[in-house]
Amino acid sequence: MLGRLPPFFRFAIVGTLGLAVDLAVLWTAIHVLGLGPYAGRGLSFAVAVTFTWALNRHLTFGDKRATDAPGMAKEWGRFVAANSIGLAVNYAVYAALIQWAGGLLANPMVAAGCGAIAGLAFNYTASSRLVFKTPPA
Known about the structure:
- By secondary structure, the chain is mainly α.
- It contains 4 helices and no strands.
- Helix 2 (37-60) packs across helix 3 (69-100) and helix 3 packs antiparallel against helix 4.
């Protein structure tokens, strides 16, 4: 069923699942492992970005994924780099709206949603053009 959806929607579904993984690992890191919120966030991001890379390489970009170990390692590195920039885009939009927007856009929940949309758009574009750009040889 997912295969019938356009790639952007598959990417968004994988991202939603990744957010659930991210939050579960963050909660576990803080409440079970005793890590602080920053170290816990580092761990949760590392797990979530690896989870979303693995799903996206099969569900979203299956025809363009690397098939050998060195290619997979490079692909993972590009995906982590792209998603790290996407995280910065997400946060920049959020912070800008909180700081300078008025009314509803300055609401933290609305600003977070706008940031997530901006990050999603950036991450999809970067993933489709820089990470999973060509079919493997």
